[in-house]
Design a protein that fits this description.
The structure holds 2 protein chains of 2 kinds.
Chain A (H helix, E strand, L loop, with lengths): L3 E2 L28 E2 L8 E4 L13 H17 L5 E9 L2 E8 L3 H20 L1 H21 L7 H42 L4 H4 L9 H18 L3 H6 L2 H11 L2 H16 L19 H12 L6 H21 L3 H16 L2 H13 L4 H14 L12 H8 L9 H17 L6 E4 L7 H5 L5 H11 L6 E3 L1 E4 L2 E9 L13 E4 L15 E4 L7 H9 L3 E3 L4 H4 L5 E5 L4 E6 L9
Parallel strand pairs in A: 2-4, 9-10, 10-11, 11-12
Antiparallel strand pairs in A: 1-6, 3-5, 3-6, 4-5, 7-14, 8-12, 9-13, 13-14
Helix pairs in contact in A: 1-4, 3-4, 4-12, 4-13, 4-14, 6-9, 6-10, 8-9, 8-10
Chain B lengths: L4 E3 L5 H20 L7 E4 L1 H10 L2 H9 L8 H17 L4 H17 L7 E7 L15 E5 L2 H13 L4 H10 L8 E7 L3 E8 L10 E8 L3 H4 L6 E6 L5 E5 L5 E6 L4 E6 L2 H4 L6 H18 L3 E8 L9 E7 L16 H9 L3
Antiparallel strand pairs in B: 1-2, 2-5, 3-4, 3-5, 6-7, 6-12, 7-8, 8-9, 10-11, 12-13
The chains are: A alpha/beta, B alpha+beta.
């Protein structure tokens, strides 16, 4: 019998205090963003890892423009034969996603034939297609960077916010239009390799070692680290928390000031990005450079300088060796297939694009909307710049059009902040999935990005049936075995709790978690495939990593002693923190 | 009785199977395909029929088995089959035929430069290895039989194995008569095996025809064929002969020849051989050569039993003791696409349509 996890605790009509949507405020293609209703229990919903803090009212725009418009539009246009993209439901401030299936076999067949025509030319022309689309994104980015918001009237700010949202929406149309075909090709190649008997742990390596914008950023951060060390600034970093380093350096003057100037130059190029993906509530590094300072602080704690070129060359060598080793086990006929798939996946390289598009889209595309909201907050006399992020789209449209005074919303904003905090506290105990657990999932984004593969689904079922699980299985993402005390972290703010040699257990990681990999013994994630952030960074740092374990953050308690086998994908709890005794 | 004995290297290949039964007849065909096979002769189908007639066995068998219908129970079949076998093994072989077999055996010893050469005596019924009716492993084989009296006794046992319980039950089920599958018996030199094994010219599980799969262990092949030992597993690309995989298994049991009792027996594998790789690249190459030659000769995928003689030197061929059409457990895989096709791969692996 299918495992069903109830949705009752989330059923409500109200999104945030004082807001019930009329479903006219945002477009959707197949299914709108909604709160849960009882009938949603028939479907399968997973807690989205992108927003571990939850989303503010203005942040929910991403769900509307991203999943419920762009992913659905892309899935219909590509088309994805068995699916119409992703929809979502709100559990308080948190997002649960689900795939929209196509059920009619005749329609699935037609869509499959359409895909046969649309996929090959997309892959063959990927370079120029993505080049053009990225250029389009950059052109608008330059436009928004160039606007002096302080010179605009409230009415013009309103217009600017509307433009910024249109830009945001368009960027995610592009995002999903590119992501689906790339992923379909990659997952097809990955599965074929598995069927050819190749080691799944090696497949990710076939496509590594190509430069991306994120690598460029990391390289510059290491250069700044080396410069700080050369200038003898280690002690200043060591003596202060990341958010206090800047003031301390400024106070010191001399070489420290010179270094700060260099740091600011770096920010002007690489600092127009947020820490997490797709969240208007997050500041850029320009606005708050603490994350960048924090990374440099962590890098300085490592004894040796990181040789970026050497690491990159090693990645390339490892790639070529992995390909040669794989080919040697294939017959000539199989080699022909493998070579074709590899060439196709290199020409339209999903792992590479994963990093590249994060830089151009996910990490910065919310910023123009954020700037406009903050400018409107200033103009209408809000207590804080971020207060307008607690308004819904119609509300900020009314306020900026002068149709509704902000003063009347002030109390509501405070109430909503409390609501946000309440749900932030609840996040660690939220169910990772709700509804009916399916046999399998066939949306490539759900399989590869969210790790909703068979391991994940079976783990969810095992827990649902009440079995005591001490060994979990996930995707072997980075080889080797690591053992240590588990630290179960729910967002990057808690990274300071990690001590060297411990095991990081989390829902998933994003670029701001990277520094942690310099000191942990192993990493375990609820979600993610072989190309999730944790998998890539785990391999880069040689940290044994297992992804898609399903419910690791619920089944492993902070302080448990665990062993992580990144080669086989097994995670074992050796000793429970509370019991303090070895378990069977 | 000129047609009672047929030498593997003398019988015309096109007549071989009908005169010598499937197993022995194929050896003659393999010889024609320039594959190395053991020296040996067959006590032919003709000899069997004559013995049958002289001993008046028809009436006996009809009386014992005639009452059994397709629904006969196991106990009933067992009792009837046992009665027939007891009778068969007590009927003397005519002096004439016994002399012919004894002379042929002496000639075989002489061809092998031995006295009372240890031989393999194996059943070789008509139709037993055909693609449709698989009697694989049903009939008897005796390894290491030495001396004319023992050879004669083994021949009689092989004939009797036509009426073992499994064979009788099988014929009742599919509705064939024992007269439709007369039993020839092969007497061939026992190759002193350094290593032996099986080889398939298609993957026995996936059905892929782009490779040769070899399974092998030290000593005689019985432990491998009967599944008593986990053999080393080798896959070789058919198009270029490249070794794709070599999985060394922990081989805990070995089939060896016990001179004291004159039989092949199973014993514990010597510790130093358990984890040692059985075949080197050159040996793999000669097994592959033989398998390819056999597949080319027959024009369909084959399943081959082979032995590496203890005295074989580099460059010499492997000795093939049996070959038959391959039995694949999986249906032939979908015709694999020759070129990468992203939409087809996504359909197959991602969308599962």
């Amino acid at each position: 019998m299918a495992t069903v996890i109830p949705v009752d605790e989330f059923i409500t009509d109200e999104w945030y205090p004082g807001f019930k949507p009329a479903y006219t405020h945002a477009p959707w293609y197949i299914d709108p963003v909604q709160t849960f209703r009882k009938e949603d229990e028939e479907n399968f919903w997973f807690l989205d890892f992108h927003w571990p803090r939850g989303l503010t009212p203005m942040g929910l725009i991403w769900n509307e423009d991203g999943y419920n418009w762009s992913s659905q539009l892309a899935a219909e246009q590509m088309p994805l034969p068995p699916g119409r993209g992703i929809t979502c439901r709100l559990g308080g401030t948190h997002t649960y996603g689900s795939a929209l299936p196509v059920n009619d076999p005749r329609e699935i067949g037609q869509r499959a034939r359409r895909l046969e025509r649309s996929l090959p030319p997309f892959l063959q022309n990927f370079d120029s297609i993505w080049g053009d689309l990225r250029e389009e994104v950059n052109e608008s980015w330059d436009y928004f960077r160039g606007v002096d918001l302080s010179a605009l009237s409230l009415e013009d700010l309103r217009e600017n916010l509307i433009q910024a949202r249109q830009y945001h929406k368009r960027a995610f149309e592009i995002h999903f239009q590119v992501m689906y075909p790339l992923l379909a090709n990659y997952v097809g190649f990955y599965s074929m390799c598995t069927e050819l008997g190749l080691d799944p742990g090696q497949i990710g390596k076939f496509l590594q070692g190509y430069d991306t914008k994120i690598m460029e950023t990391d390289r510059e951060l290491w250069r700044l680290t080396n410069a700080a060390r050369a200038a003898g600034l280690d002690s200043v970093f060591a003596a202060h928390e990341a958010d206090g380093v800047r003031a301390a350096l400024a106070a010191q003057g001399g070489a420290a000031s010179t270094w700060l100037t260099r740091f600011d130059d770096f920010l002007q190029v690489y600092g127009w990005r947020t820490e997490g993906s797709c969240d208007i509530a997050l500041p850029s590094w320009i606005e708050d450079p603490t994350p960048a300072m924090g990374m440099i602080k962590t890098f300085l704690q490592k004894d040796t300088e990181h040789d970026f070129e050497a690491a990159r060359n090693a990645a390339v060598e490892e790639r070529e060796a992995a390909v040669d080793a794989a080919r040697s086990t294939l017959t000539l006929e199989e080699q022909k297939l493998f070579d074709g798939g590899l060439a196709s996946c290199r020409a339209a390289n999903f792992p590479w694009w994963q990093d590249d598009h994060n830089y151009y889209i996910d990490l910065r595309i919310s910023l123009p909307m954020r700037w406009a909201c903050q400018a409107i907050a200033d103009r209408v006399g809000a207590d804080h710049q971020d207060d307008t992020l607690y308004l819904f789209w119609e509300e900020i449209m009314d306020v900026s059009a002068g149709r509704r005074p902000y003063a009347g919303l002030r109390d509501l904003v405070e109430e909503r902040k409390q609501y946000f905090d309440y749900w932030l506290q609840r996040r660690p105990s939220l169910p990772k999935v709700v509804g009916t657990v399916p046999e399998s999932v066939n949306d490539p984004i759900l399989i590869e990005i969210f790790g909703l593969n068979s391991h994940f689904l079976r783990a969810v079922e095992a827990v649902g049936s009440g079995g005591e699980v001490k060994t979990f299985t996930g995707v072997p993402a980075s080889k080797g075995t690591g053992r240590g005390i588990a630290r179960v972290l729910h967002n990057a703010d808690e990274l300071h709790r990690l001590s060297p040699g411990e095991v990081l257990v989390c829902e998933s990681t994003s670029p701001n978690w990277t520094p942690a990999f310099a000191k942990i013994a192993a990493c375990v994630c609820d979600g993610g495939g072989t190309l999730s952030h944790a998998a890539i960074v785990g391999r880069e740092y040689g940290v044994p990593t297992v992804t898609a374990v399903g419910l690791a953050t619920m089944l492993i308690a902070d302080g448990d002693e665990v062993e992580v086998d990144g080669t086989t994908g097994r995670v074992t709890v050796l000793k429970r923190a509370a019991a303090g005794q070895a378990e069977g | 009785m000129p047609d009672a004995i047929a030498w593997v290297d003398e019988i015309a290949p096109e007549r071989a199977v009908s005169v010598c039964g499937a197993k022995m007849g194929r050896l003659a065909e393999l010889l024609e395909a320039h594959v190395s096979v053991p020296k040996g002769f067959t006590v032919t189908v003709d000899a069997y029929r004559r013995h049958w007639a002289q001993a008046g066995l028809d009436e006996l068998v009809d009386a014992a088995l005639g009452g059994l219908g397709p629904e006969a129970g196991p106990a009933e079949i067992e009792a009837a089959a046992q009665a027939v076998r007891a009778e068969l093994t007590s009927r003397d072989i005519s002096a004439e035929l016994a002399a012919l077999i004894g002379d042929a055996y002496e000639e075989l010893s002489s061809r092998c430069f031995e006295i009372n050469v240890p031989a393999a005596v194996r059943s070789s019924a008509i139709g037993e290895d055909s693609g449709s009716a698989s009697f694989a492993g049903i009939f008897d084989t005796y390894l290491g039989v030495s001396g004319p009296d023992r050879v004669l006794e083994a021949v009689r046992q092989c004939w009797a194995s036509l009426f073992n319980v499994r064979a009788v039950a099988y014929r009742l089920r599919v509705g064939t008569h024992h007269r439709d599958m007369p039993m020839a018996v092969g007497v061939i030199e026992l190759i002193h095996a350094r290593a032996s094994g099986v080889a398939f010219s298609a993957h026995p599980v996936t059905g892929k025809t782009d490779r040769i799969v070899i399974e092998t262990s030290w000593g005689w092949g019985e432990a491998v064929v009967q599944g008593l030992v986990t053999p080393d597993h080798v896959e070789v690309g058919k198009a270029d002969g490249r070794i794709l995989r070599y999985r060394v298994a922990a081989k805990n049991v070995v089939s060896n020849f016990d001179y004291a009792i004159g039989r092949v027996v199973e014993t514990a594998m010597p510790a130093r051989l358990v984890d040692r790789r059985v075949l080197d690249d050159e040996q793999i190459a000669v097994v592959v050569d033989a398998v390819l030659a056999i597949e080319r000769h027959y024009g369909y995928p084959v399943d081959v039993e082979w032995v590496l003689d203890r005295h074989r030197r580099e460059g010499e061929p492997v000795c093939v003791v049996q070959a038959r059409p391959v039995t694949i457990t999986a249906p032939a895989a979908d015709p694999a696409p020759a070129e990468w096709n992203p939409a087809a791969m996504a359909a197959k692996y991602v969308f599962r349509s």
